[in-house]
Amino acid sequence: MLSNCLRLAVEHELLPGNPLHRVHWETPKAVEELDARSVATPAQARALLDAVRAQGPRGEHLVTFFACIYYAALRPEEVSMLSADQCELPSKGWGWLMLAGARPQVGSAWTDDGKPKVLDGEEDRMNALIEQGLAEHEGGAEKA
Questions:
Q1: Dihedral, 37, 41, 44, 49 alpha carbons, nearest 10
Q2: What is the rounded CA–CA span in Å between residue 34 and residue 78?
Q3: Spatial CA neighbour of 79 closest among 103, 106, 49, 52
Q4: Considering only CA atoms, which of 123, 117, 72 is closest in space to residue 99?
Q5: Which end of the chain is more exposed for a tag (fewer CB within 10 A), N or C?
Q6: Cα–Cα distance between 49 and 71 in angstroms, integer?
Q7: How large a percentage of the chain has pLDDT more than 70?
Q8: What pLDDT sits at residue 80?
């Protein structure tokens, strides 16, 4: 986001150049070994799913959600977009999940108005807001 803001500021001639181009940064090396203590074992995952299921009707619904996260390594925002017609599930063995997208969401504790926000197309909206802010800034500068 910062990079986009600076790029747009340069395009609108609010900055002479992008100061990020002077920063030397290297991509951190990927962790090659996973700490087994940070991942639930299959037995722990089954116990967790059983505990969720025991919570009643809502728990039964959430078992599918958490099972997709554990067994298919999906992110919550991917599971929330998954529908039954995107699932090919045989009676035995592994199946297929055809992902069509994700629905990232920011919780209410992280927003200015205290309401949760769904971030569908958020980058496009942010770029539009940046453009709008720059246009307003340029218009205000001309009036002064």
A1: 120
A2: 23
A3: 103
A4: 72
A5: C
A6: 11
A7: 76
A8: 84
The DSSP string of 1-62 is -HHHHHHHHHHTTSSSS-GGGG----PPPPP-S--GGGS--HHHHHHHHHHHHTT-HHHHHH
Contact 11, 137 (CB under 8 A): no
Q: Nearest-CA neighbor of 9 among 115, 120, 141, 144?
A: 141
Report the pLDDT value the prediction gives residue 141, as an integer from 0 to 100.
47
pTM of the model: 0.53
Residue 131 tokens read as 């453009």
Q: Is residue 82 exposed (0-12), middle (13-18) or buried (19+ Cβ within 10 Å)?
A: buried
**Nearest by Cα to 5 from 142, 144, 137, 143:** 137
